[in-house]
Amino acid sequence: MSAKLSGDVYYPSEEVLSKAHIKNWDELSKKATEDYEGFWEERANELNWFKKWDKVIDDSNKPFYKWFTGAQTNISYNCLDRHVKTERRNKLALIWEGENGDFETMSYYRLHKETCKFANILKSMGVEKGDRVTIYMGRTPEIVIAMLACARVGAIHSVVYGGFSVEALHERIEDSQSKVLIVSDGAYQRGKIVPLKEIADEALQRAGGIEHVIVIKRTGQDVNMEFGRDMWYHELANLPIANQSCALEIMDAEDPLFILYTSGTTGKPKAILHTHGGYQVGTYTTLKYVFDIHEEDRYWCAADPGWITGHSYIVYGPLLNGATSFLYEGAPNYPYPNRWWSMIENYGINILYTAPTAIRGLMRFGDAWINRHDLSSLKLLGSVGEPINPEAWKWYHKVVGNEKCPIMDTWWQTETGMFMITPMPCVPLKPGTGTRPFPGIEMDILDDDGKPVGANEEGYLVIKTPWPSMIRTIYGDPDRYVNQYWSKYPGVYLTGDSAKRDEDGYIWVIGRVDDVIKVSGYRLGTAEIESALVSHQAVAEAAAIGIPDDVKGNVIYSYVILRAGVEGTDELKEELRQHVGYEVGPIAKPASVKFVEKLPKTRSGKIMRRVLKAEEMGEDPGNLSTLED
Ligand code: WT7
Predict the structure, then answer these.
(1) Is 241 within 8 Å of 121 (Cβ atoms)?
(2) Which residue among 27, 152, 247, 349 sits deepest, i.e. has the most Cβ atoms within 10 Å of its Cβ?
(3) Over the stretch 105-127, which tens digit does the pLDDT of each residue have?
(4) What's the CA-to-centroid distance between 52 and ligand 1, angstroms?
(5) Whole-structure pTM value
(6) Residue 319: in which H helix or E strand, if any?
(7) Tens digits of residue pLDDT in 182-196
(8) Does residue 384 have its Cβ closer than 6 Å to ligand 1?
């Protein structure tokens, strides 16, 4: 790396460099580029395999890439059994705090036993390799156990974020054809109970296929238990079948580990498929190198297990590394805005990974809340989910990190499974960019014709090399996989983001170029919000767009054509907002509902959302030649 970089640069301190696993990024990058397969093979050799691979990358059927073909493994073995055989067995795997102050710790030994117990219960219900299991829970240790138990028996878990609601859950259960649902009675959030079981009951009224529901008691309020279908976990766990040892299923490297639904450009959410072999190598390596995981660390990823960030960097990545991970159930500002800071101090957390929206939200409460706490344990910070504005970056760096913690701004996606554009502690940082692609990975920024754009010009962000934890397909819809990601530029993976590259090769991600809206870092599709609106009896047609917001990144604005004879009142606006909240989830509630007579459409009938956005923001709508009239 040339000594002098342009712009606002933060160079790594001697202190940080002296401890880092990777001290020289250029050296690692050179090694990974010269022998890409060898690089990943070496990383894979740090984990356990029942049988080694014949091939590292199998690209005989592009874009359906395979990794470590011929190998046998099970990610749950690498997360648990591997550590239990060493002195790590009594190390804490999890530290958990409930929003109401409940508290639990779990060693690797205990987590292994609890996972076996849960796995035996799943087996007793007839869950077999390849079966889908939907998990709909709050942030408690049981969600981690449930995921690992599925992996252990070879079932494919489909976690649905606990902030989603009836229709979102229904759609995902139905699409995945799950036979078992694991749900908690409720979750504490901002002092209230989110009635997860009640929401699930509603969803199950709409969806068929679920044979068994395992209910985990968390909040303890009365819930409806349907005889023959619903069973309490704590009762099942007392039965003789819930043995604490459970032989695991030997998985091929390419056997499915999980599906995770994410919003796409159009239509229903897509089931992104990840597999046992490559995914474990990718998440293990990236967490180790980027967050510089050491034996004594106390690491906190403040995301939800129900999103890819939680799958890769709350559950699998940390456990693969034998790390101690902290999990918190509730809201950042409950009961007071110092909740996070007090937990960091209490537990001596030294790595914090969160989203720009949370940083901006906490920044708003003022520095006094944070300055009451000793955060000197922190050594490294992370950011994910959307571009971080330099102002928030600097606050995070100065006030949270006391100017000594490097910030790892990690760009990646549900589809990539692991960090793709990211610094490491040894890399000079610039506020607002994740710096460069992970060593060995080639990315580019292209114009419409597929030509690389010049420095500081905007274009489509693409990935040109396969990577171990890449999406394998859209479960049940391989054609959509090819069309969505590999058809704009054949042979090249399209991310859906636009970006620029500066003169130092640092990539600045700008945002989505499709109809995906990032609200507080959560990925939502315009299609889901629109179909929720249209499912209300008063609505004939609807459109949804994202409008920039200082804290949330974006908020949703919606435009509604009412059915004939329906009067557009303020009460109806509020009812429609609530309706979207009930169907999709509170995060999807539009900030604004406007009643309109007409929506701008192309002659082929597609809603021109950019016209709505330009109008809302008082900007020039650009080319209107395709507008219907
Ligand atoms: C989209 C993927 C991957 C974890 C959470 C999101 C945006 C993600 C960054 C970042 C700028 C980012 C992109 C991407 N994004 N991280 N560090 N800087 N933008 O996963 O829900 O699949 O969303 O999030 O737009 O395409 P996801």
Answers:
(1) yes
(2) 152
(3) 999 999 999 999 999 999 999 99
(4) 33
(5) 0.96
(6) helix 317-320
(7) 999 999 999 999 999
(8) yes
